[in-house]
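Hypothesis: this fold can be encoded by more than one sequence.
Test: take the structure tokens below, design a sequence, compare later.
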């Protein structure tokens, strides 16, 4: 499958943010992990076959010496919300991976009128951001938490904590996947995420994808 990706920069309240986008249909904005922006991959190509996928590059994900993790995530959330607007996204599903999931959660809390569904991909534990942790029960939108069965035990605990605190959430384990679920199981990952974006709380897991059965 050949997918044509375009790259451009948008101004987000004075911050230059690079974006990559492809596909048509319901919009999915993606925030990468602290490891840096991901290039188009098998998983994102598969998602772009069904959705409009917009990858937003997080500028300066690491906190400055005078800024703790909570402040950094809140600051980045404001920048990313402005970038999404500049990219032409009005209402969209939002996916965040690892630390990017914390930024995505800040965005969802700040802009409930725009973020229609939330995917937390191996989310970092919210313990370092007590203000965010306390506000998780305020989230009132369909949320899917995705964990790989081969990820570290701490990842499962973080997933369970998000599940406990977010009322409208599902916790899904993807078999035979580690921290990089999209890299380890691209077809299963794309099927799971795309179906959730389209169906929200009515999403299903196709047994043929081997998401449930290894």
């Amino acid at each position: 499958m050949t997918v044509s990706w375009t790259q451009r920069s948008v101004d987000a309240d004075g911050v230059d943010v690079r974006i990559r986008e492809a596909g048509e249909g319901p919009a999915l904005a993606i925030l990468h992990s602290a490891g840096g922006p991901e290039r188009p991959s098998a998983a994102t190509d598969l998602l772009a076959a069904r959705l409009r996928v917009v990858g937003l590059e997080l500028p300066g994900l690491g906190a400055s010496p005078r800024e703790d993790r909570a402040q950094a995530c809140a600051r980045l959330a404001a920048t990313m919300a402005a970038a999404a607007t500049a990219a032409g996204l009005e209402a969209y599903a939002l996916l965040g991976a690892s630390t990017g999931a914390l930024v995505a959660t800040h965005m969802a809390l700040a802009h409930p009128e725009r973020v229609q569904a939330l995917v937390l991909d191996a989310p970092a534990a919210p313990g370092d951001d007590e203000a965010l942790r306390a506000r998780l029960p305020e989230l009132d939108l369909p949320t899917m938490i995705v964990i790989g069965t081969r990820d570290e035990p701490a990842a499962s605990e973080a997933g369970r904590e998000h599940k406990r605190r977010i009322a409208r959430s599902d916790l899904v384990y993807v078999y035979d996947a580690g921290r990089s679920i999209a890299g380890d199981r691209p077809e299963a990952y794309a099927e799971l995420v795309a179906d959730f974006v389209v169906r929200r709380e009515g999403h299903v897991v196709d047994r043929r994808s081997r998401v449930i059965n290894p």
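Residues 62-66, 207-214 have pLDDT under 50 and may be disordered. Helices lie at 42-48, 69-86, 99-110, 130-135, 153-165, 181-184, 186-199.
Hypothesis status: open.
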